[in-house]
Amino acid sequence: MKIDGTAYRSIWAGADGRSAGIIDQTRLPHEFVTLELSSLDEAAVAIRDMWVRGAPLIGATAAYGMAIALREDASDSALKAGYDTLIATRPTAINLKWALDAVMARVAPLSPTERAEAAWHFAAEVCDEDVAVNHAIGSHGLELIRALAARKPAGEPVNILTHCNAGWLATVDWGTATSPIYQAHDAGLKVHVYVDETRPRNQGASLTAWELGRHGVPHTLIVDNAGGHLMQHGQVDMVITGTDRTTALGDVCNKIGTYLKALAAQDNGVPFYVALPSSTIDWTVRDGVREIPIEERDGAEVTWVHGRRPDGVVDKVLIAPPTSPAANPAFDVTPARLVTGLITERGVCSASQAGLASLFPERAVA
Ligand SMILES: CSC[C@H]1O[C@H](OP(=O)(O)O)[C@H](O)[C@@H]1O
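# LNRAV4D5 complex -> structure
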């Protein structure tokens, strides 16, 4: 996407062929800072500490992390060490394992002298494919928005609620949940987005609001608990979220709070869509609530809030008693029964085994 007229992706190959450039998302929205990942450990820290985040971007960063590691040492032991280091960074987004397994499949059969270059090209392929897939997701999602727009009174926008950041900053470009929104906006449809701030790390407030604002998409930031009220009063026409792992039966794991949004949507007859690339489908998992590992992050993310002080200094403040423990599950699982449809690169389907099989027959599970 463009930032002040300059086209950016969220990750890019370093000119030296041995590093990768990223946007440090922990500094947004107040500071736009880019970083260079030049080692396996830097790539691992970038994922673990959420300098980069979002399932597809985590996968792309891991692919470049392996390529960077192999530039230093392409031995079998180094290959395994790279995999083990990166797979341990965050447990929930399946794109991490998907990307690492794909890199291993591509380079492990090669001689060590060929591995680094092959991994480097593969990382670029992962990024280019992500951009194309997300654009396709947007095209399919655009038709859903167009159909809603046709039923709105002239001049009134389609009001879309989204949770967390499933934007271009969560992917290599376009985003998943935001791709239909960007394409609808660019096609001249009137859209307005309710952006959940998304406690505790506020990806909605700091990333989604920033993205939409930069692209000129009308939006309103809301607290996480306002969505149900807005739906009760007919102010939400559809919900679109992303996902970090979706099961073979259509259960959707996403940022904490998504499940509650889906419950409110069902209770108010609001369509609840999930946008995802097929790389986020875990075909080996059926029951998301029971089988998907939910990341437990540091409670300090709950008790401390980052922001910009009135004097312009970016700082953090404690919002709870220093003696109060905090729990911080980072994701929850929305059962397929609460999901209206899945917007994938191959089209829209029901959140079900049959729906996924209709679009991905080659992956149909028994
Ligand atoms: C398109 S994947 C976006 C997905 O990832 C986010 O989690 P995190 O910011 O912790 O990486 C959130 O669940 C988004 O929906």
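# post-check
Residues 165 and 207 are 6 Å apart (CA to CA).
The chain has two domains: 2-129, 138-363.
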